[in-house]
Amino acid sequence: MKRAVVDPSVLVSAFVGSPAAGPGQLVAAWRDHRFVMVVSPQLLAELGEVLGRPKFERWASGERGSAYVAAFAAQSERHVDPEDDVGGHVRDADDDYLVALAQIARVDAIVSLDRDLLDAGLDRIAVEDPARFLSSL
């Protein structure tokens, strides 16, 4: 079974967007156990922090945002946060931890919509948008 690190921005898009869009279909595939999602405390914290922003309040109010994050925490393969502080994997240094997590977990792909990751040309790690990743399942 394929294993992937999913960029929190994809998970946010799935949460607020249409279930028929790529991010929504990706989360549905994960719920259907078609792939294993790899997470870390930092990834989950970023997801929770973003969903806690005022602009997402109409979707994440009450406990909906927290429950969404908790589902990934409970039903994904958890790894410790990477200790890779070297950086320089991608243009946006804030995304370096995703690359480090993918490396230590030896996943098949990072799934993202972020051009900084998609255009990075990483060695030994595929970076795919949700549609491409889904087509490979």
Return the CATH architecture.
Answer: 3-Layer(aba) Sandwich
Which residue ranges are poorly predicted, with pLDDT under 50 across at least 5 consecutive positions? Answer: none
CATH superfamily: 5'-nuclease
**Given this structure, which CATH class is correct?**
Alpha Beta
Q: Fraction of residues in helices?
A: 40-55%
The topology string of helices and strands comes to: EHHEHHHEHEHEH
The chain-level mean pLDDT equals 92
Strand content: 5-15%
Q: Indicate the radius of gyration in whole angstroms.
A: 14 Å
Brief digest:
It is built from 8 helices and 5 strands; from the N terminus they run E-H-H-E-H-H-H-E-H-E-H-E-H. The protein is of the alpha/beta class and 137 residues long. It has a single domain (3-135), classed as 5'-nuclease (Rossmann fold).
What does this structure look like?
With 137 residues, this protein is α/β, with parallel strands linked by helices. It has one domain (3-135): 5'-nuclease (Rossmann fold), CATH 3.40.50. It contains eight helices and five strands. It has helices at residues 8-16, 22-31, 41-51, 57-60, 64-75, 96-105, 115-118, 130-135, and strands at residues 3-6, 36-39, 77-78, 109-111, 126-128. It has a five-stranded parallel sheet with strand order 3-2-1-4-5, with helices on both faces. Helix 1 (8-16) runs parallel beside helix 3 and helix 3 (41-51) runs antiparallel to helix 5. The radius of gyration is 14 Å and the shape is globular. The model has no long low-confidence stretch (mean pLDDT 92).
